[in-house]
Each structure stands twice: as C-alpha cells, then as structure tokens.
Specification:
The structure holds two protein chains of two kinds.
Chain A lengths: L3 E4 L2 E9 L4 H15 L2 E7 L14 E9 L10 E6 L2 H7 L3 E9 L6 H6 L7 H5 L5 E3 L3 H8 L7 H4 L3 H12 L5 H10 L4 H20 L5 E4 L8 E7 H16 L3 E5 L6 H9 L6 E4 L3 H13 L3 E6 L1 H17 L3 E7 L16 H6 L8 E3 L6 H16 L2 E7 H5 L1 E5 L49 E3 L13 H16 L11 E2 L3 E8 L3 H13 L4 E6 L1 E3 L5 H6 L1 E8 L4 H9 L5 E5 L8 H11 L2
Parallel strand pairs in A: 1-8, 2-5, 5-6, 6-7, 10-11, 10-12, 12-13, 13-15, 14-15, 19-20, 19-22, 22-23
Antiparallel strand pairs in A: 2-4, 3-4, 9-16, 14-21, 18-20
Helix pairs in contact in A: 1-7, 1-8, 5-9, 7-9, 8-9, 10-11, 10-15, 12-13, 18-21
Chain B lengths: L20 H20 L6 E5 L14 E4 L5 H11 L4 E7 H7 L1 H10 L4 E6 L2 E2 L5 E2 L23 H7 L4 E6 L3 H13 L4 E6 L11 H4 L1 H7 E4 L6 E2 L5 E6 L2 E6 L21 H7 L8 E8 L5 H15 L5 H5 L5 E4 L1
Parallel strand pairs in B: 1-2, 1-3, 3-4, 4-8, 7-8, 9-13
Antiparallel strand pairs in B: 5-6, 7-13, 10-11, 11-12
The chains are: A alpha/beta, B alpha/beta.
Amino acid sequence: MPHKVIDVQDVVIRFSGDSGDGMQLTGSLFADTAAFFGNDITTFPDFPSEIRAPQGTLSGVSGFQVHIGSSAIYTPGDYCDVLVAMNPAALKANVRWLKPNATIIVDIDTFDQKGLEKAGFQTNDAIAELNIKQHNIIAPPITTLTKESCITCSVDPKIAIRCKNMFALGICYFLYNMPLKHTEDYIRKKFSKNQALIDINLKILKDGHNYAGNIQAIADTYIVKPSKQEPGLYRNINGNRAIAWGLMAASEKSGRPLFCGSYPITPATAILEELAIHKDLGVKTLQCEDEIAGICTAIGASYAGSLAVTTTSGPGLSLKSEALGLAVMAELPLVVVDVQRAGPSTGIPTKTEQTDLNQALYGRNGECPVAVMAPHSPSHCFVTAFFAAKYALEHQMPVIILSEGFLGNGSEPWKIPDMNDYPAINPPIVTELDPDEPYFYPFKRDPQTLATRWALPGTPNLEHRVGGLEKNHKGAVSSDPLVHQQMVNERAEKVARLARYIPPQQVIGEQQGDILMVSWGGTYGHMLSAESQLRSEGFKVGLAHFDYINPLPLNTEEVFKCFKTIIVFELNSGHFANYLRAQYPQFSYLQYNKIQGQPFIVAEITEAIKKLVP
Amino acid sequence: MKFTPQDFKSDQEVKWCPGCGDHAILASIQRALPEISETLGYSRERYVFVSGIGCSSRFPYYMKTYGFHGIHGRAAAIATGIKVANPTLSVWEMTGDGDSLAIGGNHLIHAIRRNIDINIVLFNNRIYGLTKGQYSPTSKWGTITKTSPYGTVEHPFNPGALAMGARGTFFARTLDMELQLTRDIMVEAAKHDGTALVEVLQNCVIFNDKTHSIISDREVGAERTIVLRHGEPMIFGKDMNKGLVLDGMRLKAVTLGQDGITKDDILIHNAEEQNHGLHMMLCEMEWPELPVALGIIRRVADRTYDDMVRDQLTEVANKSEIHCMNDMLRSGGDTWVVE
C-alpha cells in the first residue's frame, strides 16, 4: 500500500529508554540528520545522574528530545509528536509529555512480566493502565527482530542486542522520510576498526527502516521541509563546546595563551574535555586535585599572562568563592564558567536550573562585586564566552558566565563564524616602567575603564607584588581606613563601568505597552516562543531577555519605563527579580518561578501572561 | 649582570617579630639568589615568590622580585599555574606548616606528585603563629597550646615522609640559624628540575620558642643532628666519631671504634638513589633515638610536569593541520552548506 506523505511544520520526537540503551546517541543522530537535511533543530537531553541505574526501572530512564522544523525552532518542544520508548519504564515515565495524537513506538518484547513489574505496573496491560489507547501505537518486537537480523553475522548476540536502538531509529527515519546516509556514515567512522560492528549496525538500521515500510500501523508518513536559513557553512553545536570554542577564539584574538584549571563536575566537564583536545592551538588544561586548585592555578596563570579560565557547576563555584575574591583583590583577568544544575548541595546534578544567580552576584566575603553574563542558547555560549574573555582581559577583572545544564548539553545548528568578523581584544599589558614611577605601581588605573595594568613576570623593571591584603595604588599593604574605602569604591566602579562597553538592552515584540516579560539565560527560546505566540493572539507584550546581568545595560530603566507591568520569569525563586528590585526600586516586579530541574514549557508562560490580563 | 643580596631586598619594612627565625631564612635566600642567578643565568625579573597565609607567607613583600601573596593553603596551586603558564620563570613557594600541611595539604602532595619545577620552602615552627598560638599538623604529640590545653592527641606529619610518599624528587632539611647550609640548599633546590621541597626548622620566638632547640643548640647540635652530603659517609658528632649503619630493617647510630665499628661500616649517603626506602628512614630520624637529618636527603632526576606539558603541546601541534580558529571551526567533517 503506497503511503501518503504529509507536510508538517515541525515535529517533536522524544527518544527514551534505559540509561544503557544509547538513547542520547540515537537522539543526537536523528538531530544531526535533520540538521544536515536543512531543518532547524533544538535538542534537550534529559537523563539521570546514575551511569547505569537499575535496569528497567523508572530511575534509570534516559531521554533525548529533539524538535525539528521547517522554520526557526527556539525550544526543544513542550510535548512530543513521537515517543520512542524502549521499555515499559520509559513509556511510563514519559506519557505526561505526549501530545493528544502522538505516535508511540515501543519494543513490545520488553513488556513481559518482569519488565512490567520493574516499571511498577499493576497489570499486564500497560496501555490500559496508562490510558493511552487513543494513540497510534507501533509495537514491533524490536529485541526479537534485532536478534533475527544478526543470526547470520559473526557478532556475539549479546553485543548485537545493544544495536536495537538503530532499529527504532530506522523506523523514525521512515516515518519522517529522512535519509539514512548521515547515520550510516557515522557508523562507518565510529566502528572503523571493526567491520563486523559496522555491518550489524547498518543492517539493523536498515531492517528497522524496512520494517516500518511493511507494516500496516504506519498509514502515512511525514516530511518536515528544510527551513530557510541564511546561506553559509553550518554545524551543530552544544553549549559546552561553544563555551570552549569561544574562549579559544578570545585567546587567538588577544594573543594570550589559554589556560584552563578545572575539576570534573556535571554538567560542566565537557568544557574541560573539549579544551583538552585543542593542544594544537596552544590550549593548556590542568585537571586539578580539586575545585579550589582549579581556580587558583588559573589565577596563577593569569598573573603570568594567560587568558585564564576555570569551569565548574554550582557546588564548585561555592568552593571557589574565596579564590574568586582573591582575583578581585589582585585585579586579574579570569573567566569563571558555571554551568548551573539543580541545587542546593549535590541537588540533581543532571537537571537544569538558574539557582546560582545569587551565588554569582553575592557569594563572597567582603565588598566583592564581579561581572556576570549569561548565554541564552547553545550557540550563544560562543559569543558569551568570547566577550566574557574580552571584558576580563581588557578590564582586568574576573567575569562569571552563568550557563545552564540545559544549554551545555542542548544543541542547535550554528552558522560557523569568520573570526575576522570578531573584534580585537587588547589587554592593557605594560612592558616598560612609566618615567613618572620610581617603581611599578600595580594598582594605578586607566582613567576610563579603571582597569589596572598587566605587568607580566619576566618583564624587567616591573617587579611588583599582588595578593589578598588591601593595598594602596603603589602596591604597598595598607590598613588605612580611607585607602580601603577608596579601593573598595574603585573596584566596584570598575565593574559598574563595564556597562559603558556592553550593548544596550533590546526589547523583542512591543516596544511599549501593557506587559514586559523579563528573563535571562537559557529560558530565551521558551520566552521567545511564548512572546511570539501571545502577540499572534493579539496580546501587547514585549520581551526583555538579559544577557548582561552585572552590570545591567545602561538603558534598562528606559526599557522598564515603557511598560505598565513587568513580570520576571526564571528557574529559581526570584533571584533576578530581587536583584532588579534592588537596582531599580521604582518599578514593581511580578514573578513567575519554577524550580523543578526542568526548563519552562511555553504553555505555562503564555498562561501566566494571560492571567495578568483582565 | 652580577647581583648582590641587596638587589633582592624590597623597600618594605620587615614586620616579623624580633628574634623570629624567618629573618634568617630571608637572609639565606637573599644570599643564595646571586649565586643562583649567576649559575643558571637568571635575571631578577624571572623570579616569582608565591605564598599562602601565615607569618612565613609575608615573605614575597620583602623581596624585590615578582610576588604573589595568595590565600590560605593555595600557594602551591597558584605557583603551579604560574609555572605552567610560563615555564621560563623561577617559581618559589614560601609556606608554613599550617599553610601547606593542614589547609593546603592536598595541593602540596599533588604538586610534588606532578613534579612541577617549583621550589617549596616550608617554614616549620610546629605552631600557628599569625593566629597567636594554636597547634599545627607538625606539633608533637601532647603539645599544649591554646586549642589543646590538655595536650594534643594527634600524630604529627613529617614533611619529608609526606614528600617521599608523594614520590618527591627533592627533599632537603635545614635549620633557620644555619645560614650557610640553608643558602647552599636553596642553590641546589633551584638547580633541581622538578619540585624541590625544603623544610626549614624555624623558631617561633613568641608562641613556640625553642621548639627545635633540643637539636639546634650550639653545644648539642653536632651530637643531635647529621648533615647529609651526597657520596659521603653518614658521620656526625662534635668529634665526627659517630655514624649511621643499617641494623636489619632499621637505622642505628654507632660510635666509631666501639664494638669493632670502623669507617667502612658506615653508610654512604646516596641522595640520587631512585628507591626512597632509605631516604624515608632518614627523613623520619628523631632525637634521642637518632640524630635529625639535615642537608639534601633526596635528589633524583625525573621528567617535570611543565616540560611534559610543553612537549605534548609541541608534539600535537606539529602533527596537526589546524593552525587557527577558522581552520578548527571548519574541521571535523560534520559541517554542511546552506545555499
């Protein structure tokens, strides 16, 4: 029977299974294929922190959601059109994410007595128990078919069975009329040393694809046409890699070698791993004995003239607090990357949150302001890292980047930039003693930026001492009350003056009117989708999404003045809202907060706005 | 250019207590630096003195060199970052027993384990001085201090043993008042490629006065300490008539001429022996059973961390076809063109 091919604007597919089932890979391959095909995409890996949680249980379910579209896609999608569930636990854990007419693909072999019990089903009828009869359910015996596929091959059946994710992927490619080529190329490259593994993976992928073509359950197939994208060379990028590359780009532009002192921590580790690869570009990485050594080696490297970076997540930022104060006091350039996760303490390490904002702004002893920036999408992490490094180097101060697990692991297509289009970075390196100084004064400031000068060890005649003790401009230790007050003021003013160098705050949508939606960081895609949906329904709303948090853009007050109501959306209890109250107390701020370790869904944002309108 | 000790003195007033052992250590290092500079061809701007927190950690302010007064315990990490960023610098860490054996213990052992080419001078006065007299990780069992009014119930660390355990390549011990020995050891530490840990037994005149006097007093010092020199027999004593021998698995002090002992029975010090078994025993010698070892106990050649970092960068760069960011961003074969 010939299938009908139906055009759709966009589709959300959620791959789920045991944490050992390879769902992250399956989802990534599907996303990459869509991107190669020309769709816009956004991905959202949603996995447990256990490497191999007990097999078949709800706690071990790993998910990867991908949203593909023929026009711009800003979020991984609230609910899914297709759910791939490799076992009963995956089905049970994900039913709440189904759209009303969603298709479900399950491996029916896993729905045996044991599998159902492990997932906590009370009866033998999972479909009835979950009340999902109305959905289009495709239930091939994937395990059995995979075993049969490899009867003739030389691979151990136990290994072959691990390829069953390829069977499910083959079905999905058929369903959306997508080419197998990209995945086939990947398989050939990945297993280049083992022809048997190449053969079995290719065969199972193809068998899944053929199976879908032969069964009655699939009446129609779909196509998501390529989106209109700016011409150019593209690649997929996730936020962690983009941070690493942005830092490397800044290193090249500034001529300062990149040094990263770090300690592995979820979900930030991939930045250190990525940087460790690029020794050919002179990147030095030091995996330290702890988080504190991570930042302290970076501070040492900064003193010695490197673009110094330390990467971490919330608990690690807590450990680095004292040393960050040292970097403020010694007035050295430093980029601190915090890929936020659900806290407090160990919290939920693999889940996303924006709960480190207070810590970034205030989490140090003494008067210790630090510049804080936040990327708003995976590819924007590149830009943010580049400019964080630029400002740190040119203004001789630490800058914190508040990324999020959602951005670090999420990916999107990215038009590869030309480094010639990026600005120069000119750190205030000094090479000779100023004739007006009998010896080098380490805390003499640039009158514009208030930045101190960078005198690198090894430079003759500029010998000087820095450190955590308060000092006067000449670098002498001082506990003089007025010197302390002056230096405190100057360090604060140096951070505040960064506002003169950052771009003004943009408002998306209505430039004035009833409601201004305010947000920051990784919620951008959801906020943008909600704002555009609301405006299409006739609501007079604008969106001010902040990339720069400390200092705030100079026109922030002007932006706020233009709206009757301001509502701040964030994945915490109101850190940014409270910060704005302190900065601009003349306005009142409503809040919408969520602290569930999950990103917003667009529908909850639009509902919150609609409730405000009488 | 030839330097004198004066060339390394900063204009800052030295604020240690009168009679503190730190003054002698400062003098010894300022005396060592001209020779180091001449031997290794270093100019003054190549020196960086890094410290943590404590009395000893004020050291960088008194040196007319680059200096970084860090935070408590972290000097080893800061020094590591400086050295990796610029391996041509001569990096010196000035630290105390509280700074590098309590709060900074982790960084110390990992610096030694990596064998990064820095020189660590550990001022050991067995007390917290700057916080006015609490016991430290090297305080002897039973030490009475403000925080141990009934005596400590903790085993002290032996810095040398710790260095051996971390596979250290250089360990030496000296006494603050032994200016010449300290100076000579500093020169050797500077010449050593790798982490050089120098423990200086230092007197805190205010809170732990005479803590080392049982071995350091002029009248008894020669009988209670032994200065080890590579390739020479382990002989000590006012009349140089005592020596060390191996008695089964232990070291034993003997007197020449007694019980048929001759000079030939005495152990010859080999600081360059890779196996640290005997070095460990020498580190742990304590009066009154045995003399306390001074001098260079261990000095073995091994690859340094900073050299290996540099070599790996060069090796990877030489093999790579990627020379700039524009190359890298377009590499990997997973890009596509939108027309």
